[in-house]
Amino acid sequence: MSRGIFLFYSCLLILGGCIYKDEPMPKIMHDYGLSSSVSKELVKPAKTLPVIPKDWWPSSKFERKWIAIVIHHSGTKNGSLAIFDKWHKEGNHWEGVGYDFVIGNGTNTNNGEVEVTFRWNDQKVGAHCGGTYRNWANKEAIGICLVGNFNKTSPTGRQLASLVKLIRFLQSRYGISESRIYGHNTTPGARATDCPGKKFSMAKLKSTL
Ligand SMILES: [Zn+2]
Q1: Which domains does the chain have, with CATH numbers?
Q2: Quick check: 135 and 126 in contact, CB under 8 A?
Q3: How far is the CA of 186 from the centre of ligand 1 (A)?
Q4: 3-state secondary structure 80-136
């Protein structure tokens, strides 16, 4: 064997030995395994957050410091924002509908549809819970009306689902605690009323919040 050929084979052995001696492959394979599993997790779609309708945010720049939520039923079989607005204007001579939100039952609007009134848009004092001390509930509580007479029928599942979503949004935006969510009849200082109806369970609502 010539000196040149000997050197060539020696180099091959040394190089081969280096590769074998360092054993880099298993480590690299392991790293690849880890990084590929991480990247798979990263591309997983994020948990879907509920989409909040744009009109739930007040359209005016001014926002009241809401501290409570009062839930009502309409006490009627059917209804909608437009219908209550007409009644409250013509019957009560108010500026318009007394509530901030109206949740339909599938009669005059879709079942579970949330309608936003001018009171909420313009952050006006409500007209849904009169007679309280210095009218606190109208000034500081958000009035939500569910269409229906809940002395006779229960709210629909879709109405309750929309109500829960709306309340969660309002709670997170204004830091309203669960103890400050009232039915009209349990609102401190409110006149005696059966609103929001015997078949509306506040306990059941609160258990789902
Ligand atoms: Zn009421």
Answers
A1: 3-42 (no CATH), 59-208 (3.40.80.10)
A2: no
A3: 10
A4: CHHHHHHHHHHCCCCCCCCCCEEEEECCCCCEEEEEECHHHHCCCCCCCCCCCHHHH
Specify whether the CB–CB gap between 135 and 180 falls below 8 A.
no
Distance 71 CA to ligand 1 centre (A): 7
What distance in angstroms lies between residue 72's CA and the mean position of ligand 1's atoms? 4
Q: Mean pLDDT across the stretch 125-145?
A: 93
- For the stretch 98-116, what's the b/e string if a residue is b when 16 or more beta carbons lie within 10 angstroms of its beta carbon? bbbbbbbbeebbebbbbbb
User: Tens of pLDDT along 71-96?
Assistant: 999 999 999 999 999 999 999 999 99
Which residues on neighbouring strands pair with residue 105, listed in sequence order? 111
| Residues near ion ligand 1 (Cβ under 5 Å) | 72, 184, 195
User: 22 or 114: which carries more pLDDT confidence?
Assistant: 114
How far is the centre of ligand 1, averaged over its atoms, from the C-alpha of 197 (Å)? Answer: 9
Q: How far is the CA of 191 from the centre of ligand 1 (A)?
A: 10
pTM of whole model > 0.85?
no
